[in-house]
Amino acid sequence: MIVRARIQLGGPIVLVWDNGCLHLTASMRDLINANARWLTVFQLPTYAPDLNPQEGVWSLIKRDIGNLAAADLGQITRAVERRLKQIQYRPDVVDGCLVGTGLALGIDEPENPCQKPPQPLADQRATGSDHFAALV
């Protein structure tokens, strides 16, 4: 399937994969190595909900609808949408979910373009991968 996608797209392929069992097999590693000229794979670290800000948002939603006795899927959908809309207007809540991960939203641009950006603090959590940090 990956080779077929490359043929259809006519260019290099970049895959971002989780640590699913299929993605870690010897045959998959062989395929990646054999096609390294046009195939780049970024392997995400093992699932870490404590580093994922959206887990905090979903936790808030589940807390609100946990005791909902819904008559149908539509009622659940409306309850989730309503709660997401409420959270949307509370940036402090969203920021709190990000702060809970220990990750930073981004690095401020230096005033002088020749100046190097500040280095992260020693107590900031490391994600183990620059690519993962860029995706978060």
Question: What's the pLDDT, averaged over the residues?
Answer: 75
H-E order:
HEHEHHHH
- Give the DSSP E fraction (strand runs of 2 or more residues): 5-15%
Outline the biggest β-sheet.
Answer: 2 strands, parallel
Quaternary state, please?
single chain
Overall spatial form:
elongated
> pLDDT under 50 segments (min length 5)?
112-117, 120-136
Overall SS class? mainly alpha
- In percent, how helical is the residue content? 40-55%
How many E-type strands?
Answer: 2
Rounded to the nearest angstrom, the distance between the terminal CA atoms is 27 Å
Give the strand order, joined by hyphens, for the main sheet: 1-2
Count of alpha and pi helical runs: 6
Instruction: Report the C-alpha radius of gyration, rounded.
Output: 20 Å
Mind explaining what this structure looks like?
With 136 residues, the protein is mostly helical. It is built from six helices and two strands, in the order αβαβαααα. It has a two-stranded parallel ribbon with strand order 1-2. Helix 2 links the parallel strand 1 and strand 2 (39-43). Helix 3 (53-65) crosses helix 4 and helix 3 (53-65) crosses helix 5 (91-99).
